[in-house]
């Protein structure tokens, strides 16, 4: 396994309850094999930020105890699964630094072994074929306060059940006509033990096995068998599976599994303002409410990657949360905070003007230009400096000028001065407006040649500093600004409502004709920059071309986590 989430060179963290459980098993010699964990996604959608927490937990335990981590696709439902999702999940794990290497498995590869296990239970009198409809099975199950009712087919002989089950496999019955159920206890206080369904009939082509099978095991039956076959020691899963643990243990016990795997649960992590339900995410994508599974507004790992989040920031986010026992609601601003902390000292800070206002320096030589030296990162001097072209026609941010300034405004005003970042002090002498609309078209200014930043006479102080780009050298680009996708992440609640009723109309804004200083090297999709005073941005992997740069704003500079208002890197 390469580049796992857990960095073993870091100081040891305090032991949490999951560590304690695993350590005790190791010390007691419960297993004669190495510690092995797994992440078992169903390939019916893309992974999301909550998945990263589960991946981190399983990878971290395996790494800590020198064991193995498996990726196993729970692909026993041919109706929703697809190779697209398999490939996406593998890409996401590799991007996170959690590639399982050679340990990639598929539940569908164990079809014959799982089937034989079902026959073993039938012969032991522990499973039976039931003809009740799905609705009848539910009705017979009872309630939390009332016991269930035995199926009229519960007492079929093992020989009869085996004959019917083999007929199910051979395709003699239509989808849904019969199921195989465990024979446990219809009066159990745990609903999962009231003769749960183990197999169902589905006549549909499977993305890997084609039409080789028409019966498919339920997750609760297949999962413990798959774990045992792979040598998994600890089946770590989220808290909603806690009530399923007795069934997991029942299956392994009835199959006489030596050194049986143990299911143990950790808390589920949800983020404020985002939807992580795979069903809801699929509805948003299928309904074309978003730009695919990698829409930068989605909390999918591919969406976060396209927006510009780094795997390091996601790992830091998960570490910050720590191990939780129950469902935890985490503020999205913590994830943004982790990203800022990761980026602030390692990405170049460049000057960008998103709403340009023209500035003409009337005393700068016509046609002349020069190179000014600017630091690459205000947080990290080791990143050095760069040379930025300067000329007599510039663009500044429109918001950096006010004709009638409000109290406390410290940027450019008529008759006032500001410093150009890394350059000179300029004074605004005249405003040029559109005769009809009154819109400000340009500012006529003069510059003080003795105030060049870093020069011998540059000590004259002014209160404001603004970023700028040279008109003759600027790169034209487009910028997407993202906000929260949904007004309510719980989605449609009443009949007649659709996701369209919940989409925030301001969740994405496209800014055209933005201007950027020339970028060093050959900018590529995914490259990340700090736009001074604007935030962190990356080159979009879908819309950028050799002829047009398109950026996504990853996150603004302002940090709201824990009440912070830091704007690191502001000029």
Index terms:
single chain, 571 residues, alpha/beta, Ribosomal Protein L25, Chain P, 2 domains, seven-stranded mixed sheet, 12 helices
What does this structure look like?
With 571 residues, the protein is α/β, with parallel strands linked by helices. It is 23% helix and 23% strand. It contains 12 helices and 27 strands. The strands form 7 sheets. A 7-stranded mixed beta sheet has the order 12-25-26-27-23-24-13. Strand 19 and strand 20 form a beta hairpin. The protein is elongated.
Mean pLDDT across all amino acids? 91
Helix content: 10-25%
Q: How many H/I helices?
A: 12
- The rounded distance between the terminal residues' Cα atoms is 43 Å
CATH class of the largest domain: Alpha Beta
CATH topology of the largest domain: Rossmann fold
Structural domain tally: 2
Strand content: 15-25%
Largest sheet: 7 strands, mixed
Morphology: elongated
Instruction: Look at the helices and sheets and give the structural class.
Output: alpha/beta
| CATH superfamily label of the largest domain | HUPs
CATH architecture of the largest domain: 3-Layer(aba) Sandwich
Radius of gyration: 31 Å
How many beta-strand segments?
27
């Amino acid at each position: 396994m390469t580049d796992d989430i857990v960095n073993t060179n870091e100081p040891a963290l305090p032991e949490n309850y999951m560590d304690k459980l695993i350590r005790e098993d190791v010390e007691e010699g419960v297993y004669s094999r190495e510690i092995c964990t797994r992440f078992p996604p169903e390939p019916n959608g893309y992974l999301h930020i909550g998945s990263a927490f589960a991946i981190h937990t399983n990878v971290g335990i395996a790494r800590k105890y020198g064991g193995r981590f498996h990726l196993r696709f729970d692909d026993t439902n041919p109706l929703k699964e697809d190779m697209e999702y398999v490939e996406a999940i593998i890409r996401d794990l590799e991007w996170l630094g959690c590639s399982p290497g050679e340990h990639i498995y598929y539940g569908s590869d164990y079809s014959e072994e799982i089937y034989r296990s079902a026959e073993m239970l039938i012969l032991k009198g522990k499973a039976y074929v039931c003809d009740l409809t799905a609705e009848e099975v539910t009705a017979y199950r009872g309630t939390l306060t009332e016991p269930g009712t035995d199926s009229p087919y519960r007492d079929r002989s093992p020989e009869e059940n085996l004959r019917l089950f083999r007929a199910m496999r051979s395709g003699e019955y239509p989808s849904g006509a019969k199921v195989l159920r465990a024979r446990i206890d219809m009066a159990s206080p745990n609903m999962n033990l009231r003769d749960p369904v183990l197999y169902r009939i589905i006549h549909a082509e499977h993305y890997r096995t084609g039409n080789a099978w028409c019966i498919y095991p339920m997750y609760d039956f297949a999962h413990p068998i798959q774990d045992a076959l792979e040598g998994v020691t600890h089946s770590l899963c989220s808290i909603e599976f806690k009530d399923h643990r007795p069934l997991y243990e029942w299956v392994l016990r009835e199959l006489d599994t030596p050194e049986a795997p143990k299911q143990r649960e950790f808390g589920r992590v949800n983020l404020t303002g985002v939807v992580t339900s795979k069903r809801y995410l699929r509805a948003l994508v299928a309904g074309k409410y978003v730009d695919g599974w990698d829409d930068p507004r989605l909390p999918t790992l591919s969406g976060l990657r396209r927006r510009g989040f780094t795997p390091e920031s996601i790992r830091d986010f998960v570490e910050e949360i720590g191990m939780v026992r129950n469902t935890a609601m985490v503020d999205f601003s913590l994830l943004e905070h982790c990203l800022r902390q990761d980026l602030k000292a390692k990405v170049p800070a460049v000057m960008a003007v998103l709403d340009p206002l023209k500035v003409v320096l009337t005393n700068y030589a016509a046609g002349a230009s020069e190179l000014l030296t600017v630091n690459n990162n205000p947080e990290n001097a080791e990143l050095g400096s760069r040379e930025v072209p300067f000329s007599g026609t510039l663009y500044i941010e429109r918001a950096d000028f006010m004709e009638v300034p409000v109290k406390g405004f410290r940027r450019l005003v008529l008759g006032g001065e500001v410093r150009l970042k890394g350059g000179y002090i300029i004074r605004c002498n005249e405003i040029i407006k559109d005769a009809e609309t009154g819109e400000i078209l340009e500012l006529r200014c003069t510059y003080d040649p003795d105030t060049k930043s870093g020069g011998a006479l540059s000590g004259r102080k002014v209160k404001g500093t603004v970023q700028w780009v040279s008109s003759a050298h600027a790169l034209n680009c487009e910028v997407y600004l993202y906000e929260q996708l949904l007004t309510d992440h719980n989605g449609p609640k009443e009949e007649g409502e659709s996701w369209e009723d919940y989409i925030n109309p301001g969740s994405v804004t496209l800014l055209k004709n933005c201007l950027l200083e020339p970028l060093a090297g050959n900018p590529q999709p995914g490259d990340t920059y700090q736009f001074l005073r604007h935030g962190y941005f990356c080159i979009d992997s879908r819309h950028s071309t050799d002829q047009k740069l398109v950026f996504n704003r990853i996150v603004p500079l302002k940090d709201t986590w824990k009440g912070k208002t830091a704007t690191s890197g502001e000029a």
